[in-house]
Model the fold of this input.
Amino acid sequence: MVLFLMAQDLGTVEIGLAEYNGKLLACKTFQSAPEKMLFLTQEVLAHIGKTTADLDGVVVITGPGSFTSTRLAVTMMNGLSFVRNLPILGWENSERRPLRDLMESPSWPEDLGKAPPGTFVQPVYDRPAHITLRRNRPLI
Done:
């Protein structure tokens, strides 16, 4: 079973599960903060009676999109891939297609099969990051 995660928008998280043969098991969209991605993932897995121990691979949408959501999604899936020794596949979604459409792509099982465990993916940004420190707080 393969876990899919997409969080290109700050207030939306999409989670999907599919068998390696392409059979869609679940695909759910949540209006939620990115901080709840792990909880929501466990909720979707529990809904079909599975846990992360049942996963054979993970696919994460690497962007472009919200910097915060994209970084959190990629970090979570890299961590899950590392801890469970799972292959990971990162997909760029510049057309912002819905996760269900991406999951129906016939190429993902073959692409994921080529990704050896122990690899990682990086987020994709459509513009330079603008990260600054707060001006009204001391650094220490």
User: Anything to note?
Assistant: The first strand starts at residue 2 and ends at 9. The helical segments are 37-47, 67-84, 99-103, 108-113.
